[in-house]
Amino acid sequence: MTDERETGGASSAVWLVVGLGNPGPTYAGHRHNIGYLVADELASRLGSGFRAHKSGRADVVEGRLGAPGTGGPRVVLARPRSYMNELGGPVKALATFYKVPPERVVAIHDELDIAFDTLRVKLGGGDNGHNGLKSMRSSLGTGDFHRVRVGIGRPPGRQDVADFVLSNYSSAERKVLPFVVDTAADAVECLVGEGLEKTQQRFNS
């Protein structure tokens, strides 16, 4: 595979798309790991599996998102190997390696304040108590990166928030989850290919 960082103009178009989650089979089905699921779907669309990055701190897939033959935007998909509260370091390392500025970093993450089966896309903002976003903001030195916020809703009754995000989806939610993942992947494709405004018009309604 050609290294786009060495081919001149293409380097300016690289996007770093990060699926937020916790590594390992214990966490795989948790609500907190929706970013990993969307990253997996995007990797499938690129026709490639994740491989270890030379930093040893993340798994990556490189390719172009969009219809085959369209020369879509160059994307590096990443799944950090660190736990949620420490993933900023691996993200920073990848951004430095691929020379990606914060405004071309996309974080895909779970969002408590958005209902399940709903998503929102935005640029910048706080972390709203999300440890992954907090770690990214700290390591990148800014919150001015894009976010694809996949709704998981608030916990029912008095269930603790931490317990809720680190639990599996309900049986009813699992039936809808593939469509949620597919839509979030569509939103990422739209964002890197057509820009924030068109993506918000299409997916934030």
Describe the structure.
There is one protein chain. The chain is an alpha/beta fold and 205 residues long. The chain has a single domain (4-203), classed as Peptidyl-tRNA hydrolase (Rossmann fold). Helix content is 35%, strand content 19%. The chain is built from 6 helices and 7 strands; from the N terminus they run E-H-E-E-E-H-E-E-H-E-H-H-H. The chain has helices at residues 34-46, 88-98, 131-140, 161-165, 171-194, 196-203, and strands at residues 15-19, 51-52, 58-64, 74-80, 105-111, 119-123, 146-151. The protein has a 7-stranded mixed beta sheet, with helices on both faces. A hairpin with a 5-residue loop joins strand 2 and strand 3. Helix 5 (171-194) packs antiparallel against helix 6 (196-203). It is globular, with a radius of gyration of 16 Å. The record marks 22 as: Discriminates between blocked and unblocked aminoacyl-tRNA. Monomer.
